[in-house]
Amino acid sequence: RCTSNLKYSLCWKSSKTQKICWFCNNAKVAVLGASGGIGQPLSLLLKNSPLVGELSLFDIAHTPGVAADLSHIETRAHVTGYMGPDQLNAALKGCDVVVIPAGVPRKPGMTRDDLFNTNATIVATLADAVARNCPEAMICIIANPVNSTIPITSEVMKKYGVYNPNRVFGVTTLDIVRANAFVAELKGLDPARVNVPVIGGHAGKTIIPLISQATPKVEFPADQLSALTARIQDAGTEVVKAKAGAGSATLSMAYAGARFTFSVLDAMNGKEGVVECAYVRSEETECKYFSTPLLLGKHGIEKNLGLGKLSAFEENLVADAIGELKGSIKKGEDFVANMK
Ligand SMILES: NC(=O)c1ccc[n+]([C@@H]2O[C@H](COP(=O)([O-])OP(=O)(O)OC[C@H]3O[C@@H](n4cnc5c(N)ncnc54)[C@H](O)[C@@H]3O)[C@@H](O)[C@H]2O)c1
Fold first, then answer.
1. 98, 116, 233, 323 — which has fewest CB within 10 A?
2. Which residue is closest in CA terms to ligand 1's atom 40?
3. Quick check: is 78 catalytic?
């Protein structure tokens, strides 16, 4: 991909363990659902990154405007807008990473599963296009219900014989971001230095923060730990309520989606030791899909780092989540099996 022929000689990040040529950081990234509440700020953050060479923005509405607007920013990512089903194939050709925030968000009183009927079809249609146009791309799904949209994406890729479980991610990063922010607030720490793994899935009680594994180490009395865990699990609903019908988390999700995409790109570029939690095909529990910390590499998941040592409280949370997760996974798989 290097157009400079200089390879590493002008590398801006060179070190003994990490060699990345600025000219080689030329990834083509697509955002599907780019005109939405998440899509627009996410595209802005991607446009602002030196890791992105080409930014391909697809939506069923408004992408010419969003792309024209972003293209005036003085960063080097080349932005192109694609609108409507006729332009979907063109949007995806040659993409290295595809991020999918397309789909309807929650309104007050709705669960993420209430979005299934609308978003399952949208995600299946988009996954079908990815399978046909850029089957080797890293696929990062933001559209809810994530617990079902990842099985849907995987089954669609299988239909084309191009499924690679190391490259299909359910983006749960917002749960980690929230856990870091809330723990830092309670303990008076710098949130940039806090890391709380969050495992399981991305809905209600399937969101399992592992406070016992937080760094730096933090301790809470039992009642405070329960309240903190519940707040992390319900944080999305906190935003849905505060927005009072105007949608769900968009700005914090754009931040989290960008963080995850940059980690995937960094790892693809050869950076070592990149770890993110994400909801992926997994052998770590009896659920086919489960989120745990993952070591990322050039080809996606390099190693699943597993659940680690859980406290008794966290073991109960995992046991409590399994039933719901299995149901959501089956619902996604059945949807694809019954698709015409
Ligand atoms: N993973 C997470 O942590 C997380 C967090 C917040 C929201 N979400 C989910 O992200 C999704 C998007 O949320 P939002 O607030 O941006 O919604 P939004 O309604 O503001 O934007 C959705 C965008 O998707 C587009 N779209 C619809 N159908 C499409 C299709 N077939 N192809 C391409 N684009 C299409 C719409 O035109 C719109 O621009 C929702 O499903 C929401 O539940 C996930």
1. 323
2. 105
3. no
